[in-house]
Amino acid sequence: MRARTMVAAVLAAAFGAASAQAEPLQIRLSYVVPVSNWATILFQKPELAHHLNKSYTFEAVHFQGTPQLIQALAAGEIEIANFGFTSLPLAISNAGMTDLRIIADELEDGAPGYYSNQFMVRKDSPIKTVEDLKGKILTINAFGSGTDIPLEIMLAKHNLMNKRDVTVVESPIPTMAAMLADHKVDLIAQPLPFTADPKLKASARTLFTQADAIGLNELALWVAREPFIEKNRAAMNDFMEDAMRAERWYEDPANHDEAVKIAVAVTKIPADRWDSWIFRKDGQNGDYYRAPDGKVDLVQMQRTIDEQVKYGYLKQPLDITKYGDFSLVEEAAKRLAK
User: Fold this and answer.
1) How many domains does the chain have?
2) Would you say residue 74 lies in a domain?
3) What are φ and ψ of residue 209, in 5° steps?
4) What is the pLDDT of residue 338?
5) pTM, rounded to two decimals
6) DSSP characters for 164-227?
7) Which of 150, 206, 267, 312 is disulfide-compatible with 118, CB 3.0–4.6 A?
């Protein structure tokens, strides 16, 4: 009897340990702009997420700009950050987070034939050139963000400087169009889907694009800490498989109409703001570029980091090629090919 009791206790303990290990991994992924950043739409089609709520759980977490992700990732408030080419170097160099690893591409700005963020003025504005911005008020979503630094570099290329020649302020992206129309600011930085608003198109014009300022740039990429990846590799492989399966579904032209419906449901923005461009290649009338294999072009990203060093927005050089780990997307691609 005693032996049976001991066996039962051992089995119960073993079952309890197995149950604890089987607890789904919590994955919180940041986003700044709904739909354009994957987090808000990845799992809107649950049938594509074969491992969701089994080996991992998922939550999309909103931030006004990517610089805020540095503290959030350091504090364990998110597991994956969608850093950009401006915020990731700050996390590594300034915050000392040398264990960060780039695990996947999210979207690129200014790729040939694809969209680039627009810096816009009122249609009736006397501002015709970058030099005409002198003495004006300009707004971006967050200092140090993927729109702020290209703006600062563009100003520097035309011998202008924030605080000396212009005033740059922060404001939420959805409020910028109204601020421009009300003459509260003279230039706004607009990503998709906001530039698809007919009212904005009617009242504003593009002075220059982000690609004009800095060329092709990695606007958003997924980054996680190396110890987290290694500790949870099995669940992370499952997550990346589901994510890549969903991304491929959205990119398939056959699913365009349903993708539009999902964008409308997520944002409450009417279908006519999405239909002509979402997940399509058509220059400034199309969408951002997303790497089909999920890999970031680290050589190209290095160029934009060197540009930031050149203009003084990064204090020291950084070899970004040391921080790539594409093993998760490579494993996902193998699984999806079966």
Assistant:
1) 2
2) yes
3) -105, 170
4) 86
5) 0.88
6) TTBEEEE--GGGHHHHHHTTS-SEEEE-TTGGG-HHHHHHEEEEEEHHHHHSSEEEEEEEEEHH
7) 206
